[in-house]
Amino acid sequence: MIVTMTQSRPIVEVAGATVRFRAETALDGVDFRMFPGEVHSLMGENGAGKSTLIKGITGALHFDEGQISLEGERVDFPTPAEAQSAGIGTVYQEIDLLPNLSVAENVMLGREPRTRWGTIDWKAMRRSTGEVLAGLGLDIDPASALSTHSLAIQQLVAIARAISTDVKVLILDEPTSSLDLDEVAELFRVIRELKERGVAILFISHFLDQVYEICDRITVLRNGKLVGEYLTTELLRIDLVQKMLGRASDDVVVRRHTEAPATQVSAMLEARGMSSGNRLSDVDVVLAEGEVLGLAGLLGSGRSELARAITGIDRPDAGTISLDGVVISPRNPRRAIGFGLTYASEDRKAEGIISQLTVRENITLALQAQRGIFRRMRASRQRELAASWIEALGIRPASTEQLAGNLSGGNQQKVLLARLLALAPRILALDEPTRGIDIGAKVEVQRLVSELAENGMSVIFISAELEEVLRVSSRITLLRGGRALATVPSEDLSVESLMAMIAAPDDDE
């Protein structure tokens, strides 16, 4: 679906954008456009192609096929600097400012006004910065050190820097991820001010409430393809969720569920009051021995953050974890492994498989780390152990000395599972274990999860595919906006009811 706008011409337009990384197609013929004076949201789960599209627009990478037009003229940006010079500004989630410098120095960095003698004209720089800040309604001292200001103010300074040139398009990548409600309100005021000036703003966020509050239109991507472009006022939340997840259904009815009675679950692990910034807020989880507990929710709901906090990958701000009734403190991965808690990251390439090492080295890596540098595992023992897991999990090709980076995605995922299972954990947290692998490998991983649970291992299972969560899990904890809405037996749920709960606005709860 393409929405017809009243404006005569888009400010930026992408036609047929295609990007391939080896055998993987990250973008597949995507069309995208933005108009002056609008706030546009780009929506999709991890792997949908959002980041790739933004990088192509901003000159960080080049499309293999397709073209970009700016104000009706075809453009090609070899570098982000050239895109910025043409009027495309970007403020990333991780603010790329220098806290040891002043506000003015950050806003004018690389464009400092000079005196006739070539030195920096500090007075002119502060005056120019003050004018930019005042234009946004911001009362910030240009001479003050950036480090003395809150993260929200630093975010606004980054926006001031982006628009201090003749910006036509402003891309905001997850700008509210670390802000509280008052700070979000101030950011939205600035966005509306820029909108009134005719700036086209691309607002990328996983918070549905914020998208519906600030955005005029929504473009949805899924698996590198364009699903459609929609007016926000004409797209129901449940329809947006369905388009993001690739599920169509008719007349979904919102079903409300209460928490499953505690007496129904004999707790082996209890996590209470888990909180971390605005990513997790007072979440409780109970996990029984031999249970598969699914964590369901959209990107940014807190599902990964909860699993990482429980398994010692990240340290929460608050909360207690008990194992067999005893409070434990898995404050880092090594301690967590000692308690039998393991985690398989959703980012298999960055935090999982080491592609330059062999299958043998990858499988025995965690076990060797647990033993320590003074208790080296013999190469023969490594080969024996790796061979046993290759056979048990059906890893192909069946060679211990194959480089892991040359395996298929499904076999890489099995190698990562073998590494964790070699530790004989009591609890295994699997974050998107079937993402990016073929259907046959998915079925094998799902079967393996069920077998592990039948043999007494407890599994925390995270997937964006709701059908998969329902199929694998015995109970499901639904998260939204860093909060747990309910924990419900999977037999009492359907994909439609899960979607409806995910899509319900906060004020309807």
Automatic annotation (TrEMBL):
Pfam families named among the record's database cross-references: ABC_tran
PROSITE patterns xref list: ABC_TRANSPORTER_1, ABC_TRANSPORTER_2
Domain ABC transporter: 12-248, 263-506
SMART domains (alphabetical): AAA
Keyword field: ATP-binding, Nucleotide-binding, Repeat, Transport
Protein name: Monosaccharide-transporting ATPase
Origin species: Antiquaquibacter oligotrophicus
Lineage: Bacteria, Bacillati, Actinomycetota, Actinomycetes, Micrococcales
